[in-house]
């Protein structure tokens, strides 16, 4: 039931060819006084049920999904909308519009980021006072802010994996021509990915898109990343939330090392003798191992024809994801896909060595993946994504078999996994835990100071 | 130490584009001057700042800082402070630590760091709150802490790229006034980029107006009003944002 104000809905096409910052002066046409002005590609009437006439700080608890809030300079709140969770950020109209279109561009480029839903302007209180415009994005299911990835202290191995995921995200963004301008753990969400993490961009406010980036732009982003990550870790240190032995400065350097190695492997030029042509395939295999496909190579031969110069020109992340999707229709993160494909290969060797890959993949889906997913009781389905459950189950089965020195059957491993592991995990579909910022406290920054 | 800045015929063409982002820029900024780079999005302001910071290679021309050719000097050795558009304060760290963390990253010894933090706090009237956590501060105070992060670095030159763009109107006006008074008290050469003509005219000792990478005019705000060099300049400064 909608008792809210009238609203003008309009779609605002994204200019996918526009470079750099969004030009000013493209703000939406003014709505009638007292009417909300909603820019969105979809029309979800339920959006009008939210209390837009209140400042976000004053939203009633009933409207809020109790999710942790990261470090933000804006007031950000999470709410329920039609069965999903949305993030709402108060900001200026131009900034909201810039970010809305930037996220749409990034989505089209297949870069991992949150989904933009709407920009809402024309908000007024019951007394007629103007309220800040908001950007609405859809919360990524099963994604976690870095501060929710540990309950007591952040340990070195987790931190290393977080930074590796962040470096990979930055490389992917830079390959797409996106200069971020505010790289930090706080501006990133993480999804579990078979023992590692997959990183998603959540804040594109300072971002700019170009046909390609200069070294200076990439280096600037890296410097921002290093300083911000060091600051974030120093803060955790101060709060006693990080292993004592972790050095924030040394650790923050890791993003530069990992990034540079990855960038060199993905874009670097390689020269070799004509007789070493196998090195072309070796390079492709190395890139596949890193999770990238090569769409295009530049291959040049020196004038005397003795040396070949090889440089990947277009690389595309998601090598294993695509292969898993082709074979099974399953959509998973890169490392989960790699893990499941490995299991599929083992399954084929053990059970159907004569079947071709596609047929054995279907058999694996029917006899391994689906039974595991079906065995998860309904009340435990919000704990983890299905692909992550299957990955963990496979790990669990391996440990059981090692310990008991026998080949533990799948059904037995599933039951053991559910009882000893899954049941004791928290729900991560829409994570509720944050040791630092319990729901209802002030924003660490940008929000109100606590009373008293 | 004199911290003048000179661009000598500086040009930058981004890979994959035809038109230079900045074309043949020649511009001098005086020691202690507050120079504003103004113009619409895409006019090359940020590129000019990044060239000065050493974060953008130049296709031709030179940049001089304090009279020395800095064109080939790496960013970390240039002694310029790019004021990040990042105002997130760290909740577990005291105001003093929030101010000084970048110095720690840069390896500045503890005693000197403490002295610089105290000095910045004095200038920004944050002495009383140095031991508090950010949660206990007002919005204004938080903004000053964010600014103080650049002040403690005591660079030869401050670079500010739309530092106010993401603030709401009220906070923007207050912060603008603080930046103006702070820059004058510190006497540090400042290059400040903004698309907002009102901000440019309020802050700049002189304002350099750019259009599509080309410098149109550089003059005091009064002169720009009185004698705009062309129609673009007249239009730009005549239309409040």
From TrEMBL, chain A:
SUPFAM superfamilies listed in its UniProt record: Protein kinase-like (PK-like)
Annotated ranges, domain DUF4032: 261-422
Pfam families (UniProt xref): DUF4032
Region (Disordered): 1-21
Highest taxon in the source lineage: Bacteria
InterPro entries, sorted: DUF4032, Kinase-like_dom_sf
Name of the protein in its database record: DUF4032 domain-containing protein
Organism for this UniProt entry: Arthrobacter mobilis
């Amino acid at each position: 039931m909608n008792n809210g104000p009238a609203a003008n809905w309009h779609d605002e096409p994204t200019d996918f060819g526009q470079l750099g910052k969004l030009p000013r002066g493209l703000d939406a046409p003014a709505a009638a006084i007292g009417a909300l002005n909603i820019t969105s590609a979809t029309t979800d009437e339920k959006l009008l049920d939210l209390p837009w006439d209140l400042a976000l700080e004053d939203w009633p608890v009933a409207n809020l999904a109790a999710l942790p809030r990261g470090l933000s300079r804006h007031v950000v709140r999470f709410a329920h909308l039609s069965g999903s969770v949305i993030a709402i950020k108060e900001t200026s109209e131009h900034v909201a519009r810039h970010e809305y279109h930037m996220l749409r561009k990034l989505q089209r480029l297949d870069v991992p980021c949150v989904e933009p839903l709407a920009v809402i302007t024309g908000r007024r209180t019951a007394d007629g006072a103007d309220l800040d415009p908001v950007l609405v994005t859809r919360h990524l299911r099963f994604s976690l802010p870095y501060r929710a990835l540990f309950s007591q202290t952040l340990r070195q191995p987790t931190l290393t994996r977080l930074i590796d995921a962040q470096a990979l995200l930055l490389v992917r963004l830079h390959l797409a021509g996106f200069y971020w301008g505010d790289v930090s753990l706080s501006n990133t969400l993480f999804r579990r990915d078979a023992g590692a993490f997959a990183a998603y961009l959540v804040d594109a406010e300072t971002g700019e898109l170009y046909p390609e980036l200069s070294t200076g732009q990439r280096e600037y982003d890296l410097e921002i990343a290093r300083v911000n990550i060091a600051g974030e870790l120093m803060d955790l240190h101060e709060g006693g939330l990080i292993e004592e032995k972790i050095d924030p400065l040394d650790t923050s350097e890791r993003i530069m090392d990992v990034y540079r190695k990855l960038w060199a492997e993905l874009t670097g030029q390689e020269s070799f003798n004509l007789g070493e042509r196998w090195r072309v395939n070796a390079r492709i295999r190395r890139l596949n191992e890193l999770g990238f496909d090569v769409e295009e190579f530049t291959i040049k031969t020196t004038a005397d024809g003795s040396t070949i110069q090889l440089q990947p020109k277009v690389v595309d992340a998601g090598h294993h994801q695509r292969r898993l999707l082709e074979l099974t229709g399953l959509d998973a993160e890169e490392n989960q896909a790699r893990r499941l494909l490995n299991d599929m290969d083992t399954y084929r060797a053990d059970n159907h060595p004569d079947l071709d890959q596609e047929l054995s993949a279907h058999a694996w889906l029917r006899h391994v993946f689906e039974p595991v997913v079906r065995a998860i009781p309904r009340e435990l389905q919000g704990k983890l994504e299905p692909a992550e459950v299957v990955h963990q189950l496979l790990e669990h089965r391996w440990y059981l078999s090692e310990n008991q020195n026998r080949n533990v059957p799948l059904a037995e491993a599933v039951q053991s996994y559910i009882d000893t592991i899954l049941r004791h995990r928290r729900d991560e579909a829409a994570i509720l835990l944050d040791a630092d910022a319990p729901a209802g406290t002030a924003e660490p920054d940008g929000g109100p100071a606590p009373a008293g | 130490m004199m911290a003048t800045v000179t661009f000598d015929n500086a040009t930058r063409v981004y890979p994959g584009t035809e038109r230079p982002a900045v074309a043949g820029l020649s511009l001098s900024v005086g020691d202690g001057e507050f120079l504003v780079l103004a113009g619409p999005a895409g006019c090359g302001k940020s590129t000019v700042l990044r060239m000065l910071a050493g974060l953008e290679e130049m296709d031709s021309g030179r940049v001089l800082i304090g009279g020395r050719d800095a064109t080939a000097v790496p960013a970390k050795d240039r002694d310029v402070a790019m004021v990040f558009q990042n105002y997130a304060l760290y909740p577990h760290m005291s105001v003093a630590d929030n101010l000084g963390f970048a110095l720690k990253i840069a390896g500045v010894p503890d005693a000197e760091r403490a002295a610089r933090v105290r000095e910045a706090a004095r200038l920004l009237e944050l002495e009383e709150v140095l031991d508090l956590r950010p949660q206990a501060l007002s919005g204004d105070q938080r903004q000053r802490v964010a600014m103080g992060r650049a002040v403690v670095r005591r660079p030869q030159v401050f670079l500010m790229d739309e530092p106010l763009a993401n603030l709401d109107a009220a906070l923007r006006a207050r912060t603008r006034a603080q930046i103006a008074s702070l820059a004058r008290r510190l006497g540090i050469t400042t290059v400040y980029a903004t698309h907002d003509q009102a901000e440019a005219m309020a802050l700049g000792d002189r304002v350099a107006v750019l259009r599509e990478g080309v410098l149109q005019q550089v003059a005091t705000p009064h002169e720009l009003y009185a004698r705009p060099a062309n129609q673009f300049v007249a239009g730009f400064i005549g239309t409040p944002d």
